[in-house]
Amino acid sequence: MWGKCCRWWLDKLGWTVQGSLANHPKMVLAVGPHTSNWDFIIGVMCKLALGLDVAFLGKHTLFEGPLGGLMRRLGGIAVDRSKAHGVVGEVAGRISRSEQLLLALAPEGTRKAVYPWKSGFLYIAQTARIPIQCVGLDYQQKTLVFGPVLTVSKDVTVSMESVYSFYRTVTAKYPQQTITEPNA
């Protein structure tokens, strides 16, 4: 029922899907650009409309009180960002122990304009030995774009450039808050 409802809403809002989710049982989905709280809402609507079983990391405060149960049912995994050390290993271990786990992360790590982006998602994929698929929320085209599937190289800088390259083609809700090049 929720899937049909979300499909209807996305259709009414004019959103479409381009490309497809790669056929891997375990993968990091780098979803961006992340410039607005609407990104989460559109992302969850797409997840439900497409019937995808996708987990995501969220700050632990979102999992407190009555909102916590909803966040967990939507696939949320609480992370205490004040204790960031060990998160990569913990999440990579969780992925390794799972038969199937698609983990969506915002590569910027924040809704604010920031450069360079956080590299934790690359290290999670590298540690768990799984690919990354770039997924864009293009507000100009109103399109969820399933982009390239990447294997993290030993040189994370090279992998990050591939990620930036994809997101240069996607228009954020607030484009001025997306920086994909130094000194931009």
Overview of this protein structure:
By secondary structure, the protein is of the alpha/beta class. It has one domain. Helix content is 35%, strand content 22%. It is built from six helices and seven strands. A seven-stranded mixed β-sheet has the order 1-7-6-2-5-3-4, sandwiched between helices. A hairpin with a 4-residue loop joins strand 6 (132-138) and strand 7 (143-150). Helix 1 packs across helix 2 and helix 4 packs parallel to helix 5. The chain starts with a helix and ends in a 17-residue tail after the last helix. GO terms for molecular function: 1-acylglycerol-3-phosphate O-acyltransferase activity.
- pLDDT averaged over residues: 91
The number of E-state strands comes to 7
What order do the strands of the largest sheet run in, or round the barrel if closed? 1-7-6-2-5-3-4
Overall number of structural domains: 1
Estimate what percentage of residues fall within beta strands.
Answer: 15-25%
Low-confidence stretches: none
Structural class by SSE content = alpha/beta
Secondary-structure element series: HEEHEHEHEHEEH
| SS summary, helix count | 6
- Largest β-sheet summary: 7 strands, mixed
Give the proportion of residues in helices: 25-40%
Radius of gyration: 16 Å
The best one-word shape is globular
Alpha-carbon distance between the two ends: 44 Å
